[in-house]
Specification:
The chain folds into two domains: about 280 residues, Aldolase class I (TIM Barrel, Alpha-Beta Barrel), CATH 3.20.20; about 90 residues, no CATH class. Strand 3, helix 4 and strand 4 form a beta-alpha-beta unit. The longest helix is centred in the middle third of the chain and has 18 residues. Helices cover about 45% and strands about 10% of the residues. The relative contact order is 0.10. The chain starts with a helix and ends in a 6-residue tail after the last helix. It is of the alpha/beta class. Helix 2 packs across helix 3. The strands form two sheets. Strands 1-2-3-4-5-6-7-8 form an eight-stranded parallel β-barrel, surrounded by eight helices. Strands 9-10 form a two-stranded parallel sheet. The mean pLDDT is about 95.
């Protein structure tokens, strides 16, 4: 099917009145640091972390937070090993590490950089909202002092610095202006604004980024980059990240499966899917390793993938419903995988290393049964189709592979 014909088949309201030129941003993967702050995840073994790092690299993710070495000896050991892996395997992905705006947190980042020869961006963070200031009994003068001392130390040690304000999304503009101006004046090359508690709406994201871009312009820091780091407490993590991209940030952060504190972070896998579908990355960007990336993080962190999780969930591309399955089957019989992957799906499975699956259950038609048998090269007969079809109509759920093979009278293949 030609591209012209494909365009005729789907009228895309998402594209109406949208600019022809799409924004391009880089991506920072926080799975191995912020993601591990979830109360439910297991901190993976270093071998698993290395495998996850390689999968990030294969997906073209630009940079990864490889840990918080100020947390203790194990964190230092893991961060060092991951930096060595980037060096020795000649990975394209860049490294960064988080740390509070205290020298004790930034010193091990400098030491690991010097030991491994791998440049590590120091992400120095400090709470910025009034509610946090009241809780901690901080005054703005003290906050500026911590900011300046930390950045001065990092720059002196040869580190590039990202200055991060926690809870930026609830901070007063005057506080934001004072802290970020100080950070820029003392050498921070990236500024990260955070929706630490998942407070923002897309409108709020646009307003905050607009404010930040104006601030950077007023300071004249043309070489300073702007990052967005969002959480998902209101279920808006993904849409806020997309809003930040359209608002003009240079980089957005996320984690595999959205793992992280409380309700987690922006989902990196869902972000990659939507960026590709929205034209925020090159059409030929290879995301076929995305299922492996999600599966590996799920296994290593002991985080199950919900069955209805977008794109990577078990049910995402599986149907047993007669009408839906029949349409997919008709397209597949024509050898038209483009059509099969879109007729009942808003996400083309094949672009992300997946495929449509036809199953059998109480809402299935005979075409489901016939296709299922043909797919497994099992001889089709009216008697066999009727037997499976009639049994399915008596069931209260979709059959497993083993149950269908039992009805056929042969064992399922291993």
């Amino acid at each position: 099917m030609s591209e012209h014909d494909q365009d005729k088949l789907i009228y895309d309201w998402n594209e109406v009145d949208r600019p022809a030129e799409r924004p391009r941003v880089t991506l920072d993967d926080e799975t191995l640091r912020d993601g591990l702050q979830s109360p439910s995840v297991h901190d993976p073994e270093i071998g698993d972390k290395i495998e996850i790092l390689h999968l990030m690299d294969a997906l073209g993710i630009d940079t990864a937070d490889i840990g918080l070495p100020g947390a203790g000896p194990r964190a230092v050991a893991d961060v060092t090993r991951l930096a060595e892996e980037i060096r020795d395997s000649k990975l394209s992905i860049n490294a960064n590490c988080a740390g509070r705006t205290v020298i004790a947190d930034l010193k091990p980042i400098a030491e690991i950089t010097q030991k491994t020869g791998v440049p590590i961006l120091a992400c120095a963070f400090l709470g910025s909202s009034e509610i946090r200031r009241v809780t901690e009994n901080w005054d703005l003068e003290r906050m500026v002092k911590h900011t300046v001392e930390a950045i001065d130390f990092a720059v002196k040690e040869g580190l590039e610095v990202m200055y991060v304000t926690e809870d930026t999304a609830r901070a007063h503009p005057e506080t934001i202006n004072t802290l970020y101006r100080a950070a820029i004046e003392h050498g921070a090359k990236r500024l990260c604004v955070c929706d630490t508690v998942g407070h923002s709406t897309p409108h709020g994201v646009f307003q905050l980024i607009k404010h930040m871009k104006k601030l950077v312009a007023e300071v004249g820091a043309t070489d300073v980059k702007l990052d967005w780091h969002g959480h998902n407490d209101r279920g808006l993590g993904l849409v806020n990240a997309l809003a930040a991209i359209e608002a003009g940030v240079d980089q957005v952060h996320g984690t595999a499966l959205g793992v992280g504190e409380r309700c987690g972070n922006t989902s990196m896998d869902q972000l990659l899917v939507n960026m590709k579908l929205m034209g925020f990355m090159d059409e030929d960007r290879d995301l076929s390793k995305l299922p492996e990336y999600v599966a590996k993080v799920s296994e290593a962190c002991h985080v199950p993938v919900p069955i209805n999780y977008p794109v990577m969930g078990k049910d995402a591309f599986e149907t047993a419903t007669g009408v839906h399955a029949a349409a997919v089957i008709k397209a597949l019989r024509r050898g038209d995988t483009w059509l099969a992957n879109r007729v009942y799906s808003g996400v083309p499975a094949d672009e992300f290393g997946l495929e449509q699956k036809i199953t059998i259950g109480p809402m299935s038609g005979r075409s489901n049964v016939t296709y299922w048998l043909e797919k497994r090269e099992i001889e089709v007969s009216d008697e066999l189709v009727d037997r499976i079809f009639n049994a399915a109509k008596q069931s209260k759920r979709i059959f497993t592979e083993e149950e269908i093979h039992a009805l056929i009278g042969q064992p399922a293949e291993a």
